């Protein structure tokens, strides 16, 4: 399927809402560390976490994925909410559109410290967690998560990923990547390189910084023209975070039914206990 035609949409934004930084690296390239770093430098970055915490944004991205809304309209929402930097999926897909709307913005291409192979391994770990959330409800896996509205929106939104910069079919990168990697070893590494090549081709060299979180504050602050903070550069352990998220999801999936049953039993016990007390008094 042809890439999405975001860049054809042009919207005028007030200068006060101008986007200053575009972090164009894929998720799992240290974006959580970059999120914290940009916050410490005084920016208000828009991350996938922002989507999860804002139902209107999640539903808007779903509308984009289902071709009911243009991506530029969501970017307008983002900036009216005060964000001045973007990062993570799906924003890292929209580099060209964002630069056309905000030509003064600077672009940071975050790369995985261990290159394409390190990214592929980390991405598979993320996809295994995603599958815990999107799996169909069954007696053996009572997945109540798929009925949560914001999570249903995210399930649809993820289908945007990989279309613009990698030329993939909708949903192919997220919901088929594990099988693709097993059948064609190196397939994910190829997508990583395609994404990075796309960013390099679309962004003027003077506006682009290729950055690994292991590089620390100096190259980042020099590129952005801001002072170097006195505290250490933040390093968020994404792998450990993913393991915790996966555990929490499984606790929710397998724990909600026993929890509901326990509450019903407690209600029944309270009601029958009171009835017995009344009967004895009578």
Automatic annotation (TrEMBL):
Transmembrane segments: 247-271
Secretion signal span: 1-18
Xref: Pfam families: Sulfotransfer_4
The species this protein was found in: Durusdinium trenchii
Keyword terms, alphabetized: Membrane, Signal, Transmembrane, Transmembrane helix
UniProt xrefs under SUPFAM superfamilies: P-loop containing nucleoside triphosphate hydrolases
Protein name: Protein-tyrosine sulfotransferase
Gene3D superfamilies referenced in this protein's UniProt entry, alphabetically: P-loop containing nucleotide triphosphate hydrolases
Domain of life: Eukaryota
InterPro entries in UniProt: P-loop_NTPase, Sulfotransfer_4
């Amino acid at each position: 399927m042809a890439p999405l035609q975001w860049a054809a949409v042009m919207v005028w934004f007030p200068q006060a809402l101008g986007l200053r930084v575009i972090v164009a690296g894929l998720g799992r390239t240290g974006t959580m560390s970059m999120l914290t770093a940009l916050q410490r430098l005084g920016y208000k970055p828009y991350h996938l976490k922002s989507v999860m915490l804002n139902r209107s944004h999640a539903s808007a991205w779903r509308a984009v994925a289902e071709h009911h809304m243009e991506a530029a309209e969501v970017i307008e929402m983002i900036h009216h909410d005060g964000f001045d930097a973007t990062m993570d999926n799906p924003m890292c897909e929209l580099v060209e559109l964002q630069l056309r709307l905000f030509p003064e913005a600077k672009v940071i291409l975050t790369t995985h410290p261990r290159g394409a192979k390190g990214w592929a391994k980390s991405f598979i770990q993320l996809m295994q967690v995603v599958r815990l959330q999107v799996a169909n409800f069954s007696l053996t896996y009572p997945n109540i998560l798929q009925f949560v509205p914001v999570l249903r929106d995210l399930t649809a939104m993820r289908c945007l990923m990989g279309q613009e910069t990698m030329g993939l079919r909708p949903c192919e990168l997220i919901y088929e990547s594990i099988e693709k990697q097993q059948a064609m070893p190196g397939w994910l590494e190829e997508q990583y390189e395609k994404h990075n090549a796309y960013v390099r081709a679309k962004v003027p060299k003077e506006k682009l910084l290729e950055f690994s979180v292991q590089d620390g504050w100096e190259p980042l602050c020099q590129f952005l023209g801001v002072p170097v903070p006195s505290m250490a550069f933040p390093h968020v352990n994404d792998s450990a975070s993913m393991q915790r998220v996966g555990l929490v999801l499984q606790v929710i999936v397998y724990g909600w039914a026993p929890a509901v049953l326990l509450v019903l039993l407690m209600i029944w016990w309270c009601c029958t206990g009171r009835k017995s007390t009344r009967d004895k008094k009578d």
